[in-house]
Amino acid sequence: MRRLFPDPVDDVDLNEAYAPEAVLPGPFVRLNMISSLDGAISVDGRSGPLGGSADRRVFVAIRSHADVILVGAGTARAEGYGPARVSPADEAVRAARGQEPQPRIAVVSGSLRLDWSSPFFTEAHARPAVVTTSAAVASAPDAARAVAEFVAVGEERVDLAAALAVFADEGARTVLVEGGPGVNGDLARARLIDELCLTVSPRVVGGEGARIMAGPPFDPPFAPVVGHILEEDGFLFLRMSLREAPEPPDA
C-alpha cells in the first residue's frame, strides 16, 4: 500500500493511517464506503464484487479502531452480515488503547424485520444493539429480546443523533458507519459525520444503482478536505474530513 497524497510513501502502516481523531464532546463518527468509478456502490445488491484484497485490508484496519459499528438493516441483510470480529493481534492493541477487545455492532431498524436466528445475533461475542423506535420496542418479539439489546431513540422514527449520544454515554469514542445510503444520508444531513473514508474501485459497472448517500440534496453541499489518498492494485483509498464548513451557495 503506497500513499500518493499528501506526501508519497511506498509502504503505509494502515493502522496508523486510519487512527481516528479525538472529537469532543461526542464520538468520532466515520463513514466507510466503496464505489465504482461510475458511482455504483454494489453489483447485484452487494458491494463484494467491487472489492479486492487491498480493500479488505483497509476495511479490517478501519474496523479495528471502532468502538461501535453502525449499519442499516437493509445493508446487513444484503451483505450477509455476521458478528463483527477483529484479530487476536488487534484485540491486544485495542486493550492497550483502553477499548473493549471487540467492537460492538449495532443495526438500525425501524421495523425490526430482522432474522433473530441468524449468526449476526446468535454467534456475536456480545449481544448486538438494535437501534429502533420506542414503538417498535414495545412490540418486539421474545426471540428478539433473547439475542439483542434495544436502543430506543425516537417515538415513530429512529433518531440517529440520539443513538450516537447513547453510544457516547456508554463510553464509545469512535463510531464506524458502514451504510446503507439511507443511514448515511440521514447522518450527513444532520451534520453528524466527521469523516468519509471512500474506496474508489477500478471498476465500471453501469446500471442504476444507489450512490453512497440517499435522500434530498445537501444544502449547502459539503466541501470535503482530503487527509490522504492511498493506492494499491488500482484501488484508491480517500480519507476526507466532513467537519469543515460546507461550500457557500452560489450567489
Q: How large a portion of the residues is in β-strands, by DSSP E?
A: 15-25%
Supply the helix-strand structural class.
Answer: alpha/beta
Mean pLDDT: 93
Task: Tally the beta strands.
Answer: 10
**Low confidence ranges:** none
H/E series, N to C? EHEHEHHEHEHHEHEHEEE
- For the biggest β-sheet, the strand order reads 1-9-10-8-2-7-3-4-5-6
Total count of helical runs of at least 4 residues: 9
What characterizes the major β-sheet? 10 strands, mixed
In angstroms, what separates the terminal alpha carbons? 42 Å
What fraction, in percent, of the residue positions are helical? 25-40%
The radius of gyration computed from the alpha-carbon positions, rounded to a whole number of angstroms, is 18 Å
What coarse outline follows from CA principal-axis ratios? globular
What oligomeric state do the depicted chains represent? single chain
